[in-house]
Amino acid sequence: MSTRTPVESAQTSTENPHASKQFKQSQNNDQQPANAAQALSIGQFPTVISRNLILSIIATGIMAFVGILTETMTNVLFPVLMEQFSVSTATVQWLTTGYLLMVAVVIPVSSYCNRRFTNRTTFIIAMVLCIAGLALASISMNFAMLMLARLLQGAGTGLALPLMFNIVLEQSPRRSLGLLMGFASMVCAIAPALGPTVGGVAAEYMNWHWIFALLIPFMVVAFVLGIRAIETHHPVHRLPFPLVQLAFLAISFVAFVFALDRMGALIRARLASDDVTQQARLLGGLVVLCIVAMAVYVHLSGRSAQPLLQLDVLRDIPFRWHLVAYVLLETVTIGMSYLITNMSQLGYGTSSMTAGLLILPGALLGAALGPVGGALLDRFGAARPIMIAMAFALLGLLIMLFIPANVNIWIRVIGYIVYMCGFTMSFANTMTAGLAAIAPTLHADGNAMFNTLQQLGGAVGTTVMALCLSIAQSGHGEVGSRDYMEATKQGGEWALIVVSVFVFAAILANLRAFLNDRRQHVRMR
């Protein structure tokens, strides 16, 4: 029987022969390194989980968790903020949209930071940005101050997320990689689901400023742990910063998110029989700008000796398909957190606190099962745990879809609990399998790619769910009326169909990756 771990097996069965050779050399080397740093210097990975690694994951995990938590927590505060700052729904939404944009733009910079700075330096920069954002939000007296606070937080989270995964990939024993990736990915899976719960409960009992202030002590604890534990096990070099590449990448992302926003406005205007000519032209212009800016970025990246993000990772077929599946899963999960909280309030008449509590059971159970999924990957390989878990995720959505809309909302949430169990046991493993398909030298770039598109997937999920509800609600009276509530439930049904299709597509994407991986393994043998 082979003694290779599942992740090593996945690594050697990709299209990168250099990665395969490196893993085999690591396995056949009987020399035991004195420490993790020495292990990496001779081409090996650590053989045990060190205390500093655990503390590093905790420190970066807290920072990333708080950043993502505030992403969905703020959504529940929108009605309060609209009243206090006298802003519209379209304006207040930018507290989340702008945050996601900042995260998506900054994450690619993490690959440069990984090559240019030590992990501790990157950690300090991210922590300062996150704490500054929380502090400013806690004293914000107008919308502009709060918007700036959210952008600062977004910049910090954009550095924190990839740093957490880079530490795990660089310093974990290979036989425990799935387990530790499961713990790290729990942050991405659970924080968005807990956000509405925390925001709803807190908004019921305290001023919204305190919600941000109370998170600062957790960040201080994380800062102390990180300063003492975070290490760097890779060389760093002085490199010029590719500012022009970042500018075009940022333009492309911003145009993409604005295009999604305008698409919703266009559909609503058409339903209201308004003139849509100007909206259509604006939408077309944004789409063209997005495509052109991305094309220029790809061109500049290909000609650069030190690109902002190595696009070579996309040449690996299994990596590409795992990436597609990962983004689709994140799109559905962020969209579901929006859908359930809004559908319960606008369709079933619940309070904001109840709306937040609806997703708490699924979030907590999912948190417990995330590392279990990683342990199963370490034991059985990637394919079986991922495909079985994704089947459960699809089953959960179908349960929600086929339970009649007029039953108690808590009964319908049973399906969400099933979905979260399947999601958390497949989400982290999908990323692990994708990163195992590329050479270790490209892990930082692959990690940045996963986290960047994850944020854009979240923006798409929120927009699509909002679009389904707004289309159904159009022309059905005022908020709170019986017709409006029934229309909201109908919109929820449409949204559940959409997310079910997304999860099915994610299943097919992962299946495509595994089939290609198996064919390549046969050719290599």
Automatic annotation (TrEMBL):
Record domain Major facilitator superfamily (MFS) profile: where: 56-518
SUPFAM superfamilies, sorted: MFS general substrate transporter
Protein name: Sugar efflux permease
Any one GO CC term of the record: plasma membrane
Top-rank taxon: Bacteria
Single Gene Ontology MF annotation: transmembrane transporter activity
Short name of one Pfam family: MFS_1
Protein's UniProt keywords contain Nucleus: no
InterPro entries associated with the record: MFS (IPR011701), MFS_dom (IPR020846), MFS_trans_sf (IPR036259)
Membrane topology annotation: Multi-pass membrane protein
Bias (Polar residues): 1-26
Residue span of region Disordered: 1-30
Transmembrane segments: 53-70, 90-110, 122-145, 176-195, 207-227, 239-260, 280-300, 321-341, 353-377, 389-411, 417-444, 494-515
Localization terms from the record: Cell membrane
Alphabetized UniProt keyword annotations: Membrane, Transmembrane, Transmembrane helix, Transport
